[in-house]
Design a protein that fits this description.
This protein has 329 residues and is of the alpha/beta class. The chain contains 10 helices and 8 strands. It has a 5-stranded mixed sheet. A 3-stranded antiparallel sheet has the order 1-2-3, with no helix packed on it.
């Protein structure tokens, strides 16, 4: 099996994956094993023990279909070389605030349209798992994306768009679990994991079901003074409020929403500094990308690339397993 820990830089990765055959072999070994332990599974019927053809492809003895190692991955039905895909994934995984399609097209010598297509295929791998929940101490907050009226001429501005208005802005709701991981020195340090999603509005009828779905009952929930959170105590949560309107930002040393607000700040800088503008249609995929970067920020570049590579070929680990891996590391 390939040791992905050796890919601690773009140079080391490109030197190893220097031809198409090496890239294909990496997919085969990671997906189906090596040597006597290799068990090729047909992506069409799910049968095992497929045979290898002379041309390097595989044939299923059950459904009699031929297939390559790329079938069932994001590389299927693409004319781009696997080398360019691997470089793109490494760049996407290693850049702290993402990479634009214009920059990616320049780096790997493809058109901007092709680079945009590649970026969105990779972002599709980063979608948040609805089966994963939070417990313990949770911060909840909302943010509003877009709608900067100050850049418009006075005659073109939409009235009454300040604050939490959704006339020209898109609301996004987020939750952050406070946690700890053990570092290399054996010391425990603070770590937080976030989940965020585009919502229709920030009313109680919208926010409460989301919290109920993803936050374990009995958890401590920290929020601001928004009325939508007023009934969380009735739902079985230990609800603590930090009244920002009264200039409260930390109460009793533990009641605050500074961590989730830090994530919003990071997300805004990602949008304004790298992508400049995001349409409502694709906003959730950019949120998923930002959430993935935040939750894997303690990973090394090689670890994050290995995890993204696994996702690209259909091997998906639950986030709870990733968290255990980080703690063990």
């Amino acid at each position: 099996m390939i040791d992905f820990s050796q890919f601690d830089s773009l140079i080391s990765m490109t030197m190893y994956f220097n031809n198409e055959d090496t890239c294909k072999q990496a997919i085969i070994e990671t997906r189906w094993g090596v040597g006597d332990n290799q068990d090729v599974v047909c992506p069409y019927c799910g049968e095992h023990h497929c045979v290898t053809r002379k041309d390097g492809r595989f044939r299923c003895n059950h459904c009699k279909r031929n297939f390559s190692c790329k079938v069932g991955t994001i590389f299927e039905d693409t004319n781009l070389s696997l080398q360019k895909w691997f470089i793109a994934m490494y760049l996407i995984s290693s850049h702290k605030k993402g990479i634009s399609s214009c920059q990616l097209s320049h780096d790997i010598k493809v058109t901007q349209k092709t680079a945009w297509y590649m970026l969105h295929k990779v972002r599709a791998l980063l979608a948040q798992d609805d089966a994963e929940g939070f417990s313990g101490e949770i911060e909840c907050d909302e943010v509003y994306i877009g709608g900067k009226e100050k850049w418009k001429h006075q005659s073109m501005r939409t009235p009454h768009t300040q604050g939490r208005s959704t006339k020209t802005k898109t609301p996004v709701f987020g939750m952050m679990e406070r946690s700890e991981i053990e570092n290399e020195k054996g010391e425990f340090e603070f770590m937080s994991y976030v989940r965020a999603m585009v919502v229709e509005n920030t009313n109680r009828t919208t926010i409460e079901p989301i919290i109920s779905q993803f936050v374990e009952e009995g958890s401590t929930v920290f929020t601001d003074e928004l009325n939508s959170y007023n009934h969380l105590a009735d739902m079985g949560y230990n609800h603590k409020i930090c009244n920002h309107g009264a200039l409260q930002y930390v109460v009793d040393g533990e009641t605050y929403t500074n961590n989730i607000e830090g994530f919003w700040s990071h997300f805004r800088r990602m949008i304004s500094g790298c992508y400049h503008d995001v349409s409502d249609e694709h906003l959730q995929s950019y949120i998923d990308e930002a959430v993935y970067r935040w939750n894997t920020r303690k990973m090394s570049e090689s670890e994050r690339f290995a995890h993204m590579f696994e996702k690209s070929i259909g091997l998906v680990r639950k986030w709870s397993e990733i968290k255990v891996g980080l703690i063990a590391a």
